[in-house]
Amino acid sequence: MFLRLFAITCLCACATFSLAPDKVFTHIIKTRSIDLNNAHGLAMENRLGRNVVPTGYYLELEPYIEDGVYEGRVVINVTWNTETDEINLHCAPDVAIVNSKVELFGESGKSQEIAITQIDTDAKKSTLKFQLEKSVPASSIGALDLSFKGKMETSTSEGLFKSSYKTDQDEERIVVATQFRPNNARRMFPCFDEPEFKVPFDVSIVRPLGMIALSNMAISRVENITDEPNAELVHFKRSPPMSTFTMGFVLADLVQLGNSIQYSDKTSNNFEMRVWGRPEYLEALQEVPDKFIRILNEIAEFNWPPLPLDKLDIVALPNYQGVKPTDNWGLIVFRESDLSSSGHIQLTHEVLHQWLGALVTPAWWSDAHVNKALVGYLAVETAYKINRGCEMEVKWPMTFLYSLYYEYSKRYPHSRITGMKQETVSTKIELLFRMFNYTLGDETLKKGLKMFVTQRAFQTFDGDFLWQSLNTAASEAGNSQKIDVKAIAQSWIEKDRLPVVTVKRNYDSKTAVVSQKLYLRERPHDVPDAGRMSWWIPLVVVRGDNLDFNSTAPLAWMKDQTLELNNMPSKEHFIIVNPEEIGPFPVNYDEDNWNLIAEFLKTERRTKIPELTRAKVLHDAWNLAFAGELSFATALNMTLFLKHEENLPVWDPVFTMIDHIDRHIWDIRDKFNAYVISLLRPPYIKLTKDIDENEKSWRRNMRNLFKTFLCSAGYKPCIKDAQEQYSKWMKAQNPDEGNPVSDRYLCPVFRWGTQEEWNFGLQRVINFPPSRKQSERTYLLKTLSGCCEDKYKLTRLLNITLLEENGNFTERDIFLINNMFSDEPVGHTTLLHFIDDNWNIIKQKYYHRTNLWSHLISTATSYFTTKAGLDLVTQLYVKHQGEFGPAEHIIEKAIRNIKEESKWSSQNLPVMEKWLDDYLERNGVKVEKKY
């Protein structure tokens, strides 16, 4: 039976929403936000016109759950802003319009139907255009009455979707729910599906008896359906004005956890909170109510306006496949595992969206970056206060910063994965909020955010509103330095780059000259306009003669290329600029200041410097040396205090840089490995004593990291342990049936083990049964080819795969082997010699398989970093010039890049080797030549 139509009295009621003038949709944002240069996807979507805009929805839906289809009717109250004879709105191609009608309402309340002469659809844009028989004057009000039908999504958890799950009694249960973020409301019903259109919703849903029905608001009444005794029509209360993407509902066989909680706080929040899940999962959700109360109490400290909601439903939805929770207003839907997890960050993130996203909404998708960044920052800060940093293991913001530094220091950021660009932009803005929290002060930031949320409640915003609110708060706080928050933010947001600050002290005059320039690690440093780039940089300085890390007001904000600081300490004391990574930029110093920091860190007073700052100076030194801005001798000196260091955040950059440097120092790798073992062994031994099964996760993670890098460097106890475990597999009666030992033992065995052990692994790849998980074979092949440092073993692998074309190895396997060779100097060196020695055969076999041929040449030539490597590649190029075909440009580009890398190697490797020689001799460490 088709959906019951509303009575005409209902239509008239829908046309007279009684909202205050400032709550009706009139706030179209016209000011331009800070430009997020390459916003793509949704940000580039064509907007609907503003000639006709919605003022309210009355939506009724009847799902036919077994069939996976639905029917519905929506009455959209509209206002004509300008005279026009057409109405444009969104509707996905899969949603069929069954009936349509446009009515005008006169002052007397009578309605007049306006004939629709034509309906045009644009499947690509998911829009509909209703052509009317005549123009409607500006300021007219009316309604668009549409009946529609469509299919539920079954392959994804987007739009209106249907999924199923099995109970503990093996009974199938059905779930019907929505996920409309970011623009999926149009996939269920015709609507004005843009965030700016914030209007009230009246929602009614037909639900089968026995299922719960949840939506944004509480149920107002339930109506029996005469001709359908197994279903009832559930009417929900009218919502506050909201965007279509925050509307949602759930139909499911769920039950409530305990009794409802009436939550209230000092900001006048007062709503019912309920937690829902399947009966057999409720035990895992026992702590959820208390978590949300703690989160809401922390958010109350921001003193934002109360939520205009009468309830908040929190749902653990079985078999929900969404990437992130559905943050509908008043109805948050989680994956079961996410809701029952021990952390607070994700839960806090979703609760914050009730204000930042629903109450206050980004005007357009490009502004969503700012909203996402603000929510991300506040979620971490709030969760940190709740559990005192245990969840983040005090690694935030370092994990964000490191990836940001590496990406933005490339010659071509995001050149490989453009989709990452939006994430890094949001991450950078998140770090800007952290920077403003330090530099403006916590209370000033809170005041600015309160001002922002209060002023934009029920409305939309662009970035300018937010920055201006912070600016006003800073001015009212009497900030002595006149700053423009928007200008500061814009200087960071508009560039896909970060600066490096260099501080050169004059110890006699107690001054310091500070300069800034583009930060680049990847060579060559030939970025256009690099010399003209500048950022607004807060210069927060901590002095060695007064280690005050609580005072974070900048001595100055630097916009120009250089600036002089006065009243610096005497030559006996260091300075640290940008402590705690207040701003997202590394800092370089003159050699004397670096040495002062290094010497202080070796004393027992080193803990006077907080661990994040200890991590910062260590990370900065290594990265600046890698970038060619600092001597590696100085950078390596900065690691000497680590034998006393027990904090994972401080060690984190060490592991990263060992991995980065390891790929560039093949000629002195044995010495470097000996240094790594001597550095890591003492704290690792300490971590392995008195292991407690209830120990903190950070300690367990730290021990695993130490072991991984010790194994990679050739630590004998690690190799012995791995070989003993590996031997169990070698002695197995049927080794091809499965690997009885942990995968973590494979790499140490293949790197440092015997020929027999490596051959055994090779046979397991060749004889791998098709009945087993192929991912296990992939991992085995990756470690077999990527961990091995013996050219004879690797040559054998190349003979089998490239020359013999063993049928057990696919073309995909060859690509995989090549990828693993690219990370190891012995790998790509062996491949280059192999191609040179077997040129005619390999060219004949692979030249016309263009992708594979190019991949082989690229791997064999593109990853060298020394003069010796340059000579090898050049000799190959000269010997076969003109024969590389589609790979000719690859080897030519490789030669150009290796020339730059070889300059780096010739400059840095002798310095590193001398330092390593002195260090190893001074500490009595013997170097073992592995190959």
UniProtKB/TrEMBL annotation:
Its EC number is 3.4.11.-. GO terms for cellular component: cytoplasm; extracellular space; plasma membrane; side of membrane. It is a lipid-anchor; GPI-anchor. SUPFAM superfamilies: Leukotriene A4 hydrolase N-terminal domain, Metalloproteases ('zincins'), catalytic domain. Belongs to the peptidase M1 family. Zn(2+) binds at residues 349, 353. Its main location: membrane. CDD domains: M1_APN-Q_like. It is an enzyme of class 3 (hydrolase). GO terms for biological process: proteolysis. Binds 1 zinc ion per subunit. This is Aminopeptidase. Transmembrane segments: none annotated. Pfam families: ERAP1_C, Peptidase_M1, Peptidase_M1_N. GO terms for molecular function: aminopeptidase activity; metallopeptidase activity; zinc ion binding. Residues 295-492 form the Peptidase M1 membrane alanine aminopeptidase domain. Residues 1-26 form the signal peptide. Its cofactor is Zn(2+). Gene3D superfamilies: 1.25.50.20, 2.60.40.1910, Neutral Protease Domain 2 (1.10.390.10), tricorn interacting facor f3 domain (2.60.40.1730). The active site is at residue 350. Keywords: Aminopeptidase, Glycoprotein, GPI-anchor, Hydrolase, Lipoprotein, Membrane, Metal-binding, Metalloprotease, Protease, Signal, Zinc. It comes from Parnassius mnemosyne. Residues 54-245 form the Aminopeptidase N-like N-terminal domain.
